[in-house]
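Quick one, tokens below. Sequence please?
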């Protein structure tokens, strides 16, 4: 049971999702859920994911899946463990499973939206 807490505000850069410089990674949760989808067909199906981090444009932009980037969730096993720890933390904090599932679906949707490509067709307007 939570007896007290300290709330600290963080400014999350929206632009970091769509672009990051070389040797910089995107948000850890993206790598965690992608690694979990690569390791588990259940996670992959539950959130409509394609597979590991190399399947998503938003995770390739800054070299985040290359071996020279050493940070949270870089290796498959680390990402899966961290995703499991995140799900456990949601459970410990008594975040309803439906809400946690909604969060993971949203994270998945952001990853998938990054793979969309648009093409200009002349003469359609």
């Amino acid at each position: 049971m939570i007896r007290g807490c300290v709330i600290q505000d963080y400014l999350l850069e929206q632009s970091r999702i769509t672009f990051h410089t070389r040797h910089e990674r995107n948000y850890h949760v993206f790598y965690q859920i992608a690694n979990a989808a690569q390791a588990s067909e259940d996670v992959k199906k539950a959130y409509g994911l394609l597979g590991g981090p190399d399947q998503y444009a938003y995770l390739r932009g800054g070299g985040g899946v290359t071996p020279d980037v050493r940070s949270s969730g870089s290796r498959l096993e680390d990402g899966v463990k961290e995703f499991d720890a995140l799900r456990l933390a949601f459970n410990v904090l008594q975040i309803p499973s439906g809400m946690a599932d909604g969060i993971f679906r949203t994270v998945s949707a952001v990853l998938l939206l990054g793979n969309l490509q648009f093409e200009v067709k002349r003469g359609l307007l």
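The chain has one domain: 18-113. Helices lie at 15-18, 28-39, 41-46, 57-60, 76-92, 97-113.
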